[in-house]
Amino acid sequence: MKPTNKPIQICSNCIMDTTDPTIIFDEKGVCDYCHNYYDNILPNWTNSEADEVNILPVLEKIKKEGKNKDYDCIIGISGGLDSSYLVHLAVAKWGMRPLLYHVDAGWNSDVSTSNIMGLVDKLGLDLYTDVINWEEMKDLQRAFIKSQVPDIDTPQDLVFFSSLYNYCAKNGFKYILTGGNYSTECVREPLAWGSYYQTDMKYVNDIHSKFGEKKLVTFPRCDIFKYKIQYRLLNGVRVVKPLDHTRFIKKEAEDTLEELYGWQRYKHKHHESRFTRWYEAFWLREKFGFDKRKNHLSSLVLTGQMSREDALKRVSEPELPVEELKKETEYVAKKLGFTVDELMGYFHGPNKTFQDYKNNHKLIQAGTKVMQILGLEKRAFK
Ligand SMILES: [Zn+2]
């Protein structure tokens, strides 16, 4: 599945296109992501401070329950925009007392570390950092690269998620505040674009058993079913997304963080990890023809934060200059114990998908359908 020369159809309203094999257009050329936004998200979402009346009672309850504890909630922080802005609002505006939780998987950019420390110092917060065993992390990342699937960021996504949720369950944290939001993420990453469920352990284990060389001993893992059933239903861990109940505009949030905490902005979403930056700008785009800027920027187009023309112009150009990509490829190869030739050998190898390995896709899809029927999930999962 190398990028082909087949003509690409682009949505007439956002910039999603037929590089997502599951996209559907109506007779006006408007895609199903747009329809999902207008039909399912927008009617329930105002992106205004006035909507805080709907989240404040929840936050008050969390504060009350946590009154005699060291912290009333936990917030996973990457140093990226969404989680950083959430920390700012939660503490400075709403008076919460969170423990900040960070997972160091070995790929932090200098900017992300300094962004986290800016918030910690200025707001006087406690930060817990889980440093992942590098040899195990490396082994799983190498296995995913060798497997030829586009999902090579799964090891990082899995570890960020699992470390936090396992910690909460173990230490009795009931409330997790997350920076998940419609404002910058209302167009979900298509599964085919390397965004298959990171917590499908059947899939992860199959790839690791075929291509891994070391045992994963301390590597945090949390299967999607363990999370949904044990943690959420039995342990009562609750996830709260306050950013969907206030005004959250990317540019305004960046300005606020910069002014108050010396926070530095990233050129693009998810670039707080050096691996993710390289993977999205190079591996995924050049090897598979998938460009995650399309769904990220489409979210900004739909929510009125960027013009469609500017978004199209942005994705017509590579995110990083060729020289920098070359340097980053050398860095990634060396860190993962490949020679550049070995890594590029995988780059030129035959592309595969999650369907080429054992997985729980059908079971997860059925579960998601139930969530949608119950009104707990509004984004389109395909
Ligand atoms: Zn669209």
Class from helix and strand fractions = alpha/beta
CATH H-level homologous superfamily name: HUPs
Q: Give the averaged pLDDT, no decimals.
A: 94
Bound compounds: zinc ion
What does the radius of gyration come to?
Answer: 20 Å
Major sheet strand order: 3-2-1-4-5
CATH topology category name: Rossmann fold
Largest sheet: 5 strands, parallel
- As for the number of domains, it is 1
- Give the number of DSSP strands: 5
Overall CATH architecture: 3-Layer(aba) Sandwich
Summarize the structure.
This protein is of the alpha/beta class and 382 residues long.
How are the secondary structure elements laid out?
Layout (H helix, E strand, L loop, with lengths): L31 H10 L14 H10 L7 E4 L4 H13 L4 E7 L5 H14 L2 E6 L2 H14 L6 H18 L3 E3 L23 H11 L12 H11 L3 E3 L9 H12 L12 H15 L4 H10 L5 H9 L5 H14 L4 H8 L13 H13 L9
Helix pairs in contact: 3-4, 3-9, 5-7, 10-13, 11-12
The structure holds zinc ion.
Zinc ion binds next to α1.
